[in-house]
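Thanks for the sequence, V.! I ran Probable low-specificity L-threonine aldolase 2 isoform X1 right away. Repeating your input here for the record:
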Amino acid sequence: MLRGLARAAARRPGALWTRGSGNRTGVPAHVVDLRSDTVTKPGPAMRRAMAEAVVGDDDYGEDPTVRELQEKAAKLLGVDRTLFVPTNTMANLISVMCHCQRRGSQLLLGQECHLHVYEQGGVAQIAGVHSHPLPDLPHGTLDLAELERVVTRGLGSPYHPVCELICLENTHSSSGGRVLPIDYLRQVRLLAQSYGVRVHLDGARLMNAAVALHMPPARIVEHCDSVSLCFSKGLGAPVGALVGGPKDFIEEAWRLRKALGGGMRQAGVLAAAALVGLADFEEVLPTDHKNAQRFAKGLQELASPICSVDLAAVETNMVMVRVHGPPPEELCRRLQAVSADEVAQTGRAVHVLLFPWTERSVRAVWHRDISAQDTELVLKKWGFVLRQLGP
Ligand SMILES: *Cc1c(COP(=O)(O)O)cnc(C)c1O
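Predicted structure:
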C-alpha cells in the first residue's frame, strides 16, 4: 500500500515535489510533507558545516570530525564508545551480529518493530539469527510474562534455539512514536540479565524519547547493553547513524561494519551534519512534538465523524489518525490534491503528503522542515477535505 502510493506520487514529480512551483490555478503550491521525518533537507547551517568539515581517512581512524561525533555521542548516550555507520539498519544488524555470535541464536522482538518488518530480514539472511516476534502492546511494549515464557521455554533444551538477545524500539514507530516507560526498560533488563540475555535498543528516535521524558538520553540507554541512533530522522542529517556500547562491543562492531561494507573514508563530511543535528535537537524536537500536539488537538476540535485521534497517544512527533468511512488512501489522495474550489475558498494551494498506515489509519510525522504555520495550513486543508467528504 505504502509502495503503491509512493510510486503513484513519483509518477507526477513536477506538480508536487518542487516547493513553491506554480500550478494550474496560478497560486503558488505549498507542499507540507508529513510522510516521515526522513524527508528533511539539510538547512544552511548544516550544509555549511558539511562544506567546512575537517576530514581525514576514517578507515585509518583519522577523521577528526567522525571522532568528535563518536566521542560527543558516547558522552551524551552514557556509553563507553560509539561507531558512526551509514544507516540505522546497519547499526541494528551490526548490534544483533555482535550479540548473537552463534548461528541459529534467537532474537526476541515486537512483531511490528522496524528491525523485524522493514530491514529485509537482514538478521536472518546475513547473520543467521532466528527472530521470534511477539505481539506489540498499544504502548509499544511487550508483555513481560510472555517475554519470560519465551526466554525460559528453551532453557537447557537441546531442541530449542538459544535466546541471546531482546530488541526494543524507542520511540516505538508503529504505535505512533510512543515512548517506552523507564520502569518497563528496567524490568526487561532485569529479566534478560537473570537468563543471560542482552538487550539492544533500536533508538532511531531515541532523542525524541529523551525530549518527551525530559531526561538525558543516557538515563534511557543505561538500561540496555547496546543502542543505535539515527541521524537522518528527527535530527535532520542527510545520512548516518551510530552504534553505542562497551569498548569490546564497539571493537567487534568495527570489524562487522567493515564486513558489511560500511567502512567509510572522509566521512567527516557526513559526521559534520550529524553534529549539527545533535547540537540543536533540544530546540528542534520539542517544537516538532508541540506541532504534532497542536495538529492532534485541532483535528479533535474539527469533531468529524470521519477522523479521530487518541490525544493521550500523541507523545512525540507522530500522530496516528484513525479513519472511519472512506479508505485512508482516498483521504490521502484528497489531502495531496489541490482543486480550483479550494483555491477559490482559501486562496491557497496546499499539498499535504501522507501515507496510509493501516487499512484504517493514517500516520502523520512532524519534523524540522514543518513550521507551526505549516501545521495550521495542514489543519485548514484537513478541514476542507473533511467538508468535501461530508458526514
Ligand atoms: C528508520 C528506522 C530505522 C532504520 O534507519 P535507516 O537509517 O533508514 O536505515 C530503524 N529503526 C527505526 C525505529 C526506524 O524508524
